[in-house]
Amino acid sequence: MVKKTFKIKGMHCASCAGSIERVLLKTAGVHSAAVNFASESALVEFDEGVASESNLAKAVESVGYKLDIPTPVAKEKITSRKGLQTISVKILGMDSPHCAMVVENALKKLPGIQNTDLDFSNQRAKVVFNPQKLEISKIFEVITDAGYKPIEEEGEAKEMLDKEKIEREKQTKTLRRKLIVGGILSVFIFFGSFPEWFTFVPEFLSNYWILFVLTTPVQFWVGLQFYSGLKLLIKYRTADMNTLIAVGTLAAYFYSVAVMLFPDFFTQGGVEPKIYFDTSAIIIMLILLGKYFELLMKGRASEAIKKLMGLQPKTAIVIRGKKETEIPIIDVVVGDAIIVRPGEKIPVDGKIIEGDSEIDESMVTGESMPVHKSVGALVIGSTINKFGTFTFQATRIGKDTVLSQIIKMVEEAQGSKAPIQRLADLVSSYFVPMVGIVAVLTFIVWYFFGPAPAFNFALINLVAVLIIACPCALGLATPMAIMVSSGSAASKGILIKDAASLEIAGKINAVILDKTGTLTQGKPQLTDIIAFNNTKKEEVLHVAASLEQRSEHPLAKAILQYAASLNQRSSHPLDTAIIEEAKKEKIDLYALGDFKAISGQGLRGFLKVGSQKVEAYLGNRILIQEIGLDISLYEDKITALEKEGKTAMILVVDKHIKGALAVADVLKGESIKAVQALKKSGIDVWMITGDNKRTAEAIAKQVGIENVMSEVAPHKKSEKVRELQTLGKIVAMVGDGINDAPALAQAHIGIAMSEGTDIAMESASITLMRGDLTLIPEVIALSKKTMRIIKQNLFWAFFYNIAFIPVAAGVLYPFFGILLNPIFAAAAMAFSSLSVVLNSLRLKT
């Protein structure tokens, strides 16, 4: 069985995806098929011995669509093959299937284009072309003409990141400038349009020509971005939200211009001429304000990928010909012997063949404690060597390393996770053409069968239909609710990236919580001190801290930080008796000599206690056994600590066991409360960790979680998420480490903790700025309320449009002599927009 992703062309709605999915599942050899309408792709698992890619293409073609069999393209940013050149381009603004279709069609019209591969979810395009017939500058020019911003993906990851940030800042700055200018103009337009309400307004401001001059820049400069919807309608015979906004505001604008230029013509039908400049201007401003907040919330998935790439070392020191040589990492081959010194990053994945050390794998695994590695142990590329020097043999390089696989999984998960198709966008593709047809039919019927003057009646009713059918309320329904909701969430410490995240969050029925840094503090703390043989606890701490004073190990830091907290007379949750004793007499560390760190076991040193010099050890069972001491008398107490998931260290002074200290990554204060709240809401709660089963279950028991996923490798976390998804669960993944990024992207909702890594936050849909788990139930409640408001908004928007379109078309005139004046049409339209805004403001409470 193989699993491949194919691009599908010709899909226009969710029902298209269903048709393709059904025909693929009926094809012999196909095990599973998932068709994604938003990304216009199909993920198909099939048996290559039974079904070929051509068979799949024929099956899809039989129901009227096209499945593209991918053409292999070069992996480099710019490469050449058989006289052809491949360029990878970042296209800012290409964030929907429609956008990708526009760019693709524009590119294919260029001479010399051989192949295009567009991924709108990551705003990326790969173009294969003949450099003899086409220059790169022309490709960029065509993309720019189509209304998007191309950036060539070349240079270092940081350089690309800077380019994207600059472009994003430009977009935000431009939009902000338009909002300021448009807002000022709209205030004057509104005051001038209603002189009967605002008697203090100068008379000249109510002049039609002044209002025309004020409105025109708002209509055509401030609202410029909405006219891409007209391009879709005219060129591709489809519509999106921008089409609705453009049609509605232009109808109001041009009708007002017509009234201004030919006032007598419009009064002949017995209807007083009225202008709607204020309607078009204010609606554009409200929608643009929603777009501005949407831009501020938008995710930065591509930056997460580039930051992951930035973790990779640039060079490696290899042994070739019995000499140490520093070479670029791209020149490393499998089998190379590579030397790594303290503080250096491990270049690629491999196996240690000489030496040992403590490796900080937190950037990949998320686990806070360094791992001891010796001969035969596997090491992960991009992790940090903390202490010893060792030599390892490269086993995986380039795209095969663990980090590269994490990068690949994040990209795939982000590309396959489709944003939920908004109801308004789905309906709009049918709504606008239908309104257009109704408007044209209205004009024809009134022109041929209406009373004199027939043309005037026909034109007035046509405009009334267009204005009453103005989709502005429909356009405001989602962004206005999202704008208010996101502001309310931000005040509570919740950062939500997009509307799709809010929509899904309310449907969550399973939450996976990463252990380290999410449920726990993410750093070891001293939790227990046990004294043996009549030794005082404070003396055990005193000797242990003195031994650890030269160590950089995280366990040593936990002991030293605890001792320091006592000296500073600060509170600590460990032992009140020790604190009280420490307040009487501060701990002064004993002088340490002949210090030796024993890798993977502990440490030894000579302490000057008064006038005596005593030998002391602090370490694990292996160390104590090697110095010839029996711990059987203390086994029960030490084992009890280990069963609680703690790391136990035994203290020996002058060949006598004096006590034991336990260090653990302790639970956050709010973890238990958050888990209880989630379970009370009927949500399944899971804990996931790379820890062994005993440690994992000990932590889970403390926090009240019954479902535990233990010993999960970093690259397997996303698979665990998929397992729950296949059971029909709507899954939220909560994490904070780089290793959580693929799982965060794979889950329906990824929730990151703000004190975690940037990679995790950028891969997630929601970030908890306080890192407080009790915010998760609040996210779910806010989602449910927001979606309820959005559905109410959509109902009222459709109600106003559908109920009054027949009236605007003149259906009531033959029976009651009633025609809908465009003034009332505009009033109904404005009221529908106002109701949406006011309803959305309820989310502030």
Structural class: alpha+beta
Mean pLDDT: 77
Number of helices: 31
**Beta-strand percent range:** 15-25%
Global morphology: elongated
What is the makeup of the main sheet? 7 strands, mixed
Protein described:
With 845 residues, the protein is of the alpha+beta class. Helices cover 48% and strands 20% of the residues. The strands form six sheets. The protein has a seven-stranded mixed sheet, with helices on both faces. It has a six-stranded antiparallel sheet with strand order 11-10-12-18-13-16, with no helix packed on it. Strand 30 (749-753), helix 28 (758-763) and strand 31 form a beta-alpha-beta unit. Helix 8 packs parallel to helix 14 and helix 29 packs antiparallel against helix 31 (822-841). The model is unreliable at 71-81, 154-161, 297-305, 409-422, 569-573 and 575-585 (pLDDT under 50).
Secondary structure layout:
Blueprint: E1 2-9, H1 14-25, E2 30-36, E3 41-46, H2 53-61, E4 66-68, E5 78-81, E6 84-92, H3 97-108, E7 113-119, E8 124-129, H4 136-145, E9 149-152, H5 157-193, H6 208-222, H7 228-236, H8 241-261, H9 263-267, H10 277-297, H11 301-310, E10 315-320, E11 323-328, E12 337-340, E13 349-354, E14 357-360, H12 362-365, E15 371-373, E16 378-379, E17 384-385, E18 390-396, H13 402-416, H14 423-449, H15 454-468, H16 472-491, E19 494-496, H17 499-505, E20 510-514, H18 515-519, E21 525-531, H19 537-548, H20 554-567, H21 576-584, E22 591-598, E23 602-609, E24 612-619, H22 621-626, H23 635-643, E25 647-653, E26 656-664, H24 671-680, E27 684-688, H25 693-703, E28 707-709, H26 717-726, E29 731-735, H27 741-746, E30 749-753, H28 758-763, E31 766-768, H29 775-809, H30 813-816, H31 822-841
Parallel strand pairs: 20-27, 20-29, 27-28, 29-30, 30-31
Antiparallel strand pairs: 1-3, 1-4, 2-3, 5-6, 6-8, 6-9, 7-8, 10-11, 10-12, 12-18, 13-16, 13-18, 14-15, 14-17, 19-31, 21-26, 22-23, 23-24, 24-25, 25-26
Helix pairs in contact: 5-6, 5-10, 5-11, 6-8, 6-10, 7-8, 8-10, 8-14, 10-16, 11-13, 14-15, 15-29, 15-31, 16-29, 16-31, 17-29, 19-20, 29-31
